[in-house]
UniProtKB/TrEMBL annotation:
Keywords: Membrane, Transmembrane, Transmembrane helix. The lineage of its organism: Bacteria, Pseudomonadati, Bacteroidota, Flavobacteriia, Flavobacteriales. SUPFAM superfamilies: Multidrug resistance efflux transporter EmrE. Residues 14-138, 149-278 form the EamA domain. The chain crosses the membrane at residues 12-29, 35-54, 66-87, 93-115, 124-144, 150-167, 179-199, 211-230, 237-256, 262-281. GO terms for cellular component: membrane. It comes from the Bacteria. InterPro entries: EamA_dom, EmrE-like. Pfam families: EamA (PF00892). It comes from Lutibacter profundi. This is Multidrug transporter.
């Protein structure tokens, strides 16, 4: 049983590691966010569709009303990505990720409303510790004009992401994670199709390379694994444990962009890692 729990934690961390590549990839892509997300979802739906066909995964829903939940969650997921990429473009990777990772606190506050459970004060406390740690992760938190807009877009993105994850929690117990992600990618692709006629986009070779990695590694694999982890953890637990993502983002910055973190950045990473360890132990006890 203990080894199984360690396996679940390892799978969740692999998912978070892959998802954390979105920050750097989002900064590399120069196209407008709606067009970027449309291409991302188009490529991801093709990849997921091929995987589902190969594995012969059932695409049928048990209840017709499940369609509405998947449709709404797809819209929320698309809105989350678009606002997040605007946050990245308006500010930088640090501030974009920092503002987005208010979502564990938002999730802890919203989850009892959807599942009719008591508000877990420990989750709220850990969520605020994560926020403090995230604040330290930023080398400079200067809220200039564009940075302010970036933070606001990041916070809006966090609300969309929290509600979408809560909706997915109700469905992941009945359906395969790849199937749920596939339908969400199709929904976002169809809804954002008009963006091609609204925004001008001239993708470069770097854009195409980043988009392929974004679709395959970050979306098709990373986000699917993250959704599947909802079977083993509560949404609040998965959200708090995924708060290690900014730490991974900084490591990618060191390796790929030669951005060496400051001392207070290390303090923030330590606080976040502490909450992840505490929640891992608590989830094992449960």
């Amino acid at each position: 049983m203990k080894s199984q729990h360690i396996k679940h934690i390892a799978e969740l961390n692999v998912a978070v590691l892959l998802v954390s590549t979105s920050g750097i990839l989002g900064r590399f892509i120069s196209m407008p966010p709606p067009v970027t997300i449309w291409l991302r979802c188009l490529f991801a739906s093709i990849i997921l569709g091929a995987y589902i066909w190969y594995k012969k995964i059932n695409l049928k829903f048990e209840h017709k009303k499940d369609w509405l939940t998947i449709f709404v969650s797809g819209l929320l997921f698309g809105a989350h990505w678009i606002t997040y990429f605007y946050a990245l473009q308006l500010s930088n990777v640090a501030i974009g990720m920092l503002s987005l990772f208010s979502y564990p606190v938002i999730t802890a506050l919203l989850e009892p409303l959807f599942f009719k459970t008591k508000l877990n004060k420990k989750h709220v406390f850990l969520g605020f510790v994560v926020l403090i740690g995230i604040y330290f992760l930023s080398p400079s938190f200067n809220l200039g004009n564009n940075h302010t807009k970036g933070v606001l877009f990041g916070l809006i993105s966090a609300v969309f992401y929290a509600i979408r994850n809560i909706l997915m929690k109700k469905k992941v117990a009945h359906y395969h994670g790849s199937m749920l992600m596939f339908y969400q990618m199709i929904i976002i692709t169809l809804v954002l199709w008009p963006a091609l006629f609204i925004f001008e986009a001239n993708p470069t070779n770097n854009d195409w390379q980043a988009l392929i990695v974004l679709a395959l590694v970050t979306t098709a694999i990373g986000h699917t694994l993250f959704v599947m982890s909802f079977k083993n953890f509560s949404i609040s637990t998965a959200s708090i444990m995924s708060s290690i993502q900014p730490v991974y983002g900084i490591l990618f910055g060191v390796l790929l962009l030669n951005e060496i973190p400051l001392g207070k950045t290390l303090i923030g990473g330590f606080l976040i890692l502490t909450t992840v360890v505490i929640e891992s132990i608590n989830s094992n006890k449960k």
